[in-house]
Design goal:
32% helix, 0% strand, 93 residues, globular
Length: 93
């Protein structure tokens, strides 16, 4: 029997998938699925206290909130909660 030579990988290091998108940056290793991100049009009051840092970063990115890369988890929560309050005030005027 003849063996076929292994096909060369077509991916280069620049083509590789950024795994940080799929794994938490805060070091937690949760087997639970990631939370669905909430678009601005769907926003309502959300309790962010039990979200991981990576989920908070993803949510802030979806909403277009800019922040320093070394921001703490608590800082992200404050940013997101203040945005929730601003949107709630706009809607109830």
């Amino acid at each position: 029997m003849s063996r076929k030579a292994a096909a060369p990988s077509l991916l280069t290091s620049s083509d590789a998938v950024d795994q940080s998108v799929f794994s938490p940056m805060d070091g937690s290793h949760s087997a639970s699925p990631r939370r669905p991100l909430i678009r601005e049009s769907e926003e309502r009051y959300i309790f962010y206290g039990n979200w991981s840092r990576s989920e908070l970063i993803d949510q802030a990115a979806v909403l277009g909130i800019e922040f320093a890369p070394d921001i703490s988890r608590e800082g992200l929560i404050q940013l997101l909660e203040s945005r929730n309050a601003t949107i709630a005030r706009r809607r109830f005027r």
